[in-house]
Amino acid sequence: MDDTNPASIFINYRTSDEPVAAALLDTALSYRFGAENVFLDCRSMAAGTPFEKALRTAVRRCDVLLVVIGRNWLTATDQHGRRLIDQRGDWVRTEIAEAYRVGAHVVPVLVGDVPALAKAALPPSIRQLASNQFVRLRPRDSRSDLNQLVAQLQGLLPRFADPSDSDPSAA
C-alpha cells in the first residue's frame, strides 16, 4: 500500500468464510474507485510486508470499512473450538474495533441470506456492528447489489462522486 495514497475503503473479511465475496467487492470497487483506494489484504500488501503494521495503518487511514459477513463469520473457531471473534488476536475483530476507534464508517455486508447480527453475540469492542445499517450482497442479484453499494459509497466518499459511471460490476 502506498503511504501517499491511503485507501479510502478497507475490505474486512474472514478467509475461512467469504473470500470470494471479498474478492468480488474488491474487483467492483477497484474498478469504480481505483485499486489504490481499496484495501484488500491479499492484493494490497506485497510479499514480505509486515502485515500487522500494514493492516493497522490501512484501517487507520480508511474512510469506510466494509465487514463481509457470511454463514461462518460469527461461528468460525480456532483449533481448540473457541470462536475466533472472541479471541483478542482475531484480525477481523481487531480491524473492526480499530475502525470504530478512529471514526471510520463501518458497513456490515451480509452475504446471501445471512441474518443480521445480534448485539449479544458480539464481543463488547465491536458490539456496535449489530446496530449499523447493513447492505446485502446476494449471488443472484450481485450486479444490482454492487450498484447500490457503489451509490452509497459515493455518498460517503464525495470526492469520488461521478454520475457518469453506472455499472461497477462490468469489470
3D architecture notes:
This protein is of the alpha/beta class. The chain has a single domain (9-157), classed as Rossmann fold. Helices cover 33% and strands 13% of the residues. It has helices spanning 19-33, 41-44, 51-61, 91-102, 142-156; strands at residues 9-12, 38-39, 64-69, 105-111, 135-137. The chain has a 5-stranded parallel β-sheet, with helices on both faces. Helix 3 packs parallel to helix 4. It is globular, with a radius of gyration of 15 Å. The two termini are 22 Å apart. Residues 1-5 have low confidence and may be disordered.
Structural category:
alpha/beta
CATH architecture classification: 3-Layer(aba) Sandwich
* Proportion of strand residues: 5-15%
Overall 3D form? globular
CATH class value: Alpha Beta
Q: How are strands sequenced across the largest beta sheet?
A: 2-1-3-4-5
* Secondary-structure element string: EHEHHEHEEH
Q: Unreliable stretches, pLDDT < 50, 5 or more residues? A: 1-5
Q: Separation of termini?
A: 22 Å
Q: Over all CA atoms, what is the radius of gyration?
A: 15 Å
CATH H-level superfamily: Toll/interleukin-1 receptor homology (TIR) domain
- Give the helix proportion (percent range): 25-40%
What is the name of the CATH topology? Rossmann fold
Number of helices: 5
Domain module count: 1
